[in-house]
Specification:
globular; 2 helices; alpha/beta
Length: 115
């Protein structure tokens, strides 16, 4: 169950967040090789955030997955999510960090139990 959690200082009022969630879900599922039905994407806007001493548009994300991550896949995921944020929210690619966590099923709860 991959979970992508993105926080940005961009105000999401009037933004088509459904398109962002859909594109991010599709990209994560395709690149990690998991069904879209298991991918969760969380998008939080208007988060107080400074990057490099300025409050210009920026974002931070964390992606947790049970397997499917490696240096090559992580690079592709970083590029795909950065492109979505740049296109949809005008967050420059160089103002976005994405942290990856490859975890074990026992450390991921779902459906009242763990994987």
């Amino acid at each position: 169950m991959p979970c992508l959690n993105i926080s940005t200082n961009v105000n999401l009022d009037g933004v088509d967040t459904s398109a962002i969630l859909s594109e991010a879900t599709s990209s994560v599922a395709k690149l990690i090789g998991k069904p879209e039905a298991y991918v969760m994407v969380v998008l939080k806007g208007s988060v107080p955030m400074a990057f490099g001493g300025t409050e210009q548009p920026a974002a931070y994300g964390e992606l947790v997955s049970i397997g499917g991550l490696n240096p090559d896949i992580n690079k592709k995921l970083s590029a795909a999510i950065a492109a979505i944020l740049e296109t949809k929210l005008s967050v420059p690619k160089n103002r976005f960090f994405l942290k990856f966590y490859d975890t074990k099923g026992a450390f991921f709860g779902w459906n009242g139990t763990t994987f």
